[in-house]
Recover the amino acids of this structure.
């Protein structure tokens, strides 16, 4: 294993792959640098003197300015570097060429075993979902799911309730977003059957929600208003038995990988995330897009500082303008709520070696690979264009992962350096940035990208991840599914009455 990595030849810092002790001599670019103080694994060390106010360069880009003079061999972190970012910015479209893998690398004929729905969409799971319209019926939904799982037959894998605290006492866009996300989940192809469970007096009642759902398969989607029946548990059980019978007749069949839509998210990132797990997901993204598939990148606040890299990969000027709006609207959201735009990274990020938002964002956007941006999606908007899409959603893990599912992702790839057990409405593949995490939390981690700083090559490991995702799409359960975890969260943005 190497001692360090210098990501770009322009960098004036290296990333320690093991802890450096004061007094060690580290050979960098043909010369020796004496370590001045302990540098933890995953953290940065200066390889030359950096004057006060000068740029600290990592990934070939500025990740902040030196608060004080930083001598060669010094630990570079939050104590001596600060963000160089501003607020709302003007951007210039400077398109760059984008390159996808060669056809033989892209696995053109790749397939998985999926469930083809009546509308032509494809699911990677055959579950029955219970979607409450309002938090008041959460416990009923949960109880119905628990009881129905004892009656599952055929190819139905599980009955799952998705409780949430919204659906009433909301106003304006906040209410609109809740209705949109619920409608998206009701239409999601991973659900072979859906019971929409309402109370009856809520703002987002079933009558209102139907306007957002649009056309639907009456055999696949059933509705129950609890206030309108004498025994909601008995009525709900009957409807669920009908849905189980309908969904249970579905069978897996070979489907082109071009039908896959995969969301990409990171959380609990560390200093290894941007050099192992995130580039690995970027490699996967390129491979899937090379097959005609679709990936979705989100968590807009963690694009700040690296946004121009995405903007210049937009296929045309219209997409560039939409990406500028995506970024600046999210910044304005912070300003409207009187919050600091760059109040990031988190305590866990800092402990893992990330010092500024630029540091975090430049690592985060590695998940996008090298493909052109083909679509820019509003929160709750479904992906319509194959290729790389950018989605408006916050960095919060549960909210962003739910947003990816709502936009059509059948699977979410989630990279992490710290680890997390959470799930989302769809299979959520946890990819560790370091081998220590993968070894410690085998019940959380599905795939280890830490091997990339050991002996493994990116191209080979990218193909292994691609094959693993096809296996998940064909029915292989990820750790959170094995644990029985299913989460969903909606972006709360407005007044609560």
């Amino acid at each position: 294993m190497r001692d360090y990595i210098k990501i770009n030849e322009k960098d004036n810092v290296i990333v320690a792959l093991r802890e450096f002790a004061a007094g060690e001599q580290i050979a960098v670019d043909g010369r020796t640098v004496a370590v001045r103080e302990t540098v933890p694994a995953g953290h940065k060390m200066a390889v030359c003197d950096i004057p006060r106010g000068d740029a600290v360069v990592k990934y070939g880009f500025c990740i902040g300015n030196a608060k004080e003079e930083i001598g060669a061999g010094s630990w570079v972190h939050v104590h001596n570097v600060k963000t160089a970012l501003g607020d709302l910015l003007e951007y210039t479209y400077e398109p760059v060429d984008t390159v996808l893998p060669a056809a033989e690398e892209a696995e053109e004929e790749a397939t998985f075993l999926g469930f083809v729905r009546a509308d032509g969409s494809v699911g990677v799971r055959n579950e029955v979902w219970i979607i409450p319209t309002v938090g008041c019926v959460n416990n009923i939904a949960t109880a119905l799911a628990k009881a129905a799982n004892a009656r599952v037959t055929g190819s139905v894998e599980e009955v799952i309730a998705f409780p949430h605290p919204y659906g009433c006492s909301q106003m304006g866009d906040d209410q609109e977003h809740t209705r949109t996300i619920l409608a998206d989940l009701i239409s999601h192809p991973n659900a072979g059957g859906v019971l929409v469970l309402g109370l009856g007096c809520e703002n987002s009642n079933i009558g209102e929600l139907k306007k957002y759902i649009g056309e639907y398969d009456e055999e696949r989607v059933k509705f129950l208003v609890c206030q309108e029946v004498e025994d909601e548990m008995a009525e709900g059980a009957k409807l669920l038995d009908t849905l189980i019978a309908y969904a249970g007749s579905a069978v897996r069949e070979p489907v082109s990988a071009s039908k896959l839509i995969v969301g990409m998210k990171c959380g609990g990132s560390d200093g290894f995330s941007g050099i192992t797990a995130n580039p690995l997901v970027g490699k996967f993204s390129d491979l899937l897009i090379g097959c005609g598939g679709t990936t979705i990148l989100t968590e807009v606040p963690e694009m700040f500082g690296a946004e121009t890299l995405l903007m210049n990969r937009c296929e045309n000027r219209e997409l560039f303008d939409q990406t500028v709006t995506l970024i600046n609207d999210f910044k304005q959201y912070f300003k409207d709520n009187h919050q600091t735009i760059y109040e990031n990274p988190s305590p866990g990020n800092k402990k893992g070696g990330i010092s500024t938002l630029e540091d975090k964002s430049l690592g985060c956007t590695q998940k996008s690979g090298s493909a052109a941006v083909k679509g820019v999606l509003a929160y709750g908007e479904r992906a319509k264009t194959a290729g790389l899409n950018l989605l408006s959603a916050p960095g919060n893990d549960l909210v962003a992962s739910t947003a990816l599912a709502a936009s059509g992702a059948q699977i979410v790839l989630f990279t992490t350096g710290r680890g997390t057990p959470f799930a989302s409405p769809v299979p959520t593949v946890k990819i560790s940035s370091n081998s220590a995490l993968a070894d410690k939390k085998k019940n959380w981690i599905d795939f280890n990208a830490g091997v990339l700083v050991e002996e493994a090559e990116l191209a080979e490991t990218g193909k292994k991840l691609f094959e693993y995702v096809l296996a998940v799409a064909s029915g292989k359960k990820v750790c959170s599914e094995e644990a029985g975890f299913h989460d969903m969260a909606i972006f709360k943005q407005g007044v609560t009455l």
